[in-house]
Amino acid sequence: MANNYDKLTEKQKRFIDFYIKTSNATESARLAGYKGNNLNRVASENLSKLGKYIKERLEQLEDDRIASAKEVLQYFTTIMRDKKEDTNDRTKCAELLGKKHGIFREEVVIETDKPFEVNINVKKK
After folding, report:
1. Domain ranges in the chain?
2. Sign of the torsion formed by the C-alpha atoms of 77, 78, 82 and 86
3. Domain 2-65 has CATH 1.10.10.1400
């Protein structure tokens, strides 16, 4: 979105942000700085032209509200290293980080003289 969104005028960007806040296209056009007696028409045209940018902006705002995997790992690391935190909390964070990094792998040894079948399920990322 960044490349195409950056090509929009500041007024169009303001229109998008005000529209997301108010859900009123005419009011958003006025707040964004459009002038004149034809704000209804300008608002309608903007909705038609900028619809995909409005959708992308809504998705971006939603993404900003949700912690990324990296943020979660950084949070766990911060808690784990903070000696002021409760020991149980620090241990739990260390355990979760260890699981993420595959430190606690189980080894299975099967000894048999008889043939057997092994089914392995691999999850794709």
Report:
1. 2-65, 69-100
2. negative
3. yes
Average pLDDT over residues 60-68: 80
**Token digits of residue 36:** 């004149």
**pTM, whole model, 2 decimals?**
0.52
Mean pLDDT of 87-91: 94
Q: Which residues of 53-71 are buried (b: 16+ CB within 10 A; e: fewer)?
A: bbebbeeeeeeeeeeeeee
Q: What is the DSSP string of the chain?
A: -HHHHHTS-HHHHHHHHHHHHH--HHHHHHHHT--SS-HHHHHHHHHHHHHHHHHHHHHHHHHHHS--HHHHHHHHHHHHH-TTS-HHHHHHHHHHHHHHTT-S--------SS-----------
In this structure, the number of other CB atoms found within 10 A of the CB of residue 114 comes to 4
d(CA 55, CA 90): 40
